[in-house]
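tool_log.txt
---
The assistant was asked to compare two proteins side by side. It first ran the structure predictor on the initial sequence, then on the second. Raw inputs and outputs are pasted verbatim so the downstream comparison step can read them without reformatting.
(1)
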Amino acid sequence: MATLAQKLPYTHPFAGGFPYRGSQRLPSDPDALTYLAAVAAADGAPVEVGVAVAVDDFFRVTKASGVFDALKACCILAGARTLAGALVPVVGTSPTNVADGFVEGDFSRTAGLAGDGTSKIDSGRANDADPQNDQHVAIYATSAATNNTYSTGVGTTGNGVTNLVLLSTGGGGVYTRSRSNTDNGGLAFTTGLAGVSRDSSASYNSYANGLTNNTGTASQTPVGDNIFIFNTGASTPTNATLAFYSIGTSLSLEDLDTAVTNLITAIGEAL
């Protein structure tokens, strides 16, 4: 029979500081452990072991599917204890909370970061950092945009742009651009993963509501402006709540959706 001490959470010497019960699996992927240590440093304390295992599974699943190597700038905007922890990058440089627009009250550990129609995040990654015909951007929304009928979730402005324009519930969808000034879409979308991925000069895939649409729009030379989250750096920022974003080279948006959906679901179950 287990003693009371064995039933209570404690800090295991090999648990990376996570509050730990003897029957719980611990994270062990080296990259996940490095990320979790950086989040703990920003938060001032480690996350719960259930959250840590959810993150560990995300790293493992994306590596197994080939998605992880395509992530060049990425944040899990949920799970951490603080806004500072949520802005610790999975990969890439640290993003900038522009003008400290987002505050602690905008952050939910289970839902993510709530847009206010004004604030934005500079990803720190230039739109032309990835090849013209080898790029993706994606966001994961846990609540839909309700502000303006034309607000941008992620992207840049100018020629050869890549962005996702999230329509309000009245508009009911997402419009996409991938290395082009031409809008495409009207894809049904409220919550979940939305993204674009281009691996060809002639066309790209857009993804929303679990569906992939191949769009025959030729690519243009990309501008070098940084990619922003919650807006393009110049347009109206979305007030959707976002729990994840990624930028990088082309990938399977379906595989990314599976990994991120499982991650956000597992974080919610752990908290």
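(2)
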Amino acid sequence: MQATCPPFVTNHNFRWLSVKEGGGVWRLESLRQNELYFESDVIPDNQIRSFYDGHGKEWLTIHSRKLILPKFYRWNGNTPKKGYRVLGLFDLWLGTPDFNPGTIAASGFHDQLYQYSALKELPFTLQQSNDIYHQLSEAHGAPLDEIYNISLKICSSRCWGKTEPGAHCVTTYITA
């Protein structure tokens, strides 16, 4: 399954969050609806699947050949990391580095898939989700792409299949 999207541009597709804004957890926020495209159908073409968090906010929409990351979606970039405000003067993020443009889009879409990975309506496996990350980071020139790819293969399964309580999917059927 081949996935593609344009590179994410700072202050157009996303913005960096301060430690205060993101609570030391969220590192990035989408500024517009961003789309990931597939070369073949990932769900039937007469369906739209909308995924909601436990508070009823829609954070993922899947069409037959498109996945949508909505405006204002927040994610932590490449995991793990934690942000700290140092002496009230500057932000310090410790953990896995993010590369702009290399891993920004990849980490956003990857985060969405993991967020809903326990729901049966999500049409992607752990391996497919990691492959999507790898394809995007490679296409966008991430300098440590192969190292990140190996790390995902080794470490990511511990986070897969964990969805917050109340998260759910609504499937809309399109009739002609």
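---
observation on (2): The radius of gyration is 16 Å. The mean pLDDT is 95.
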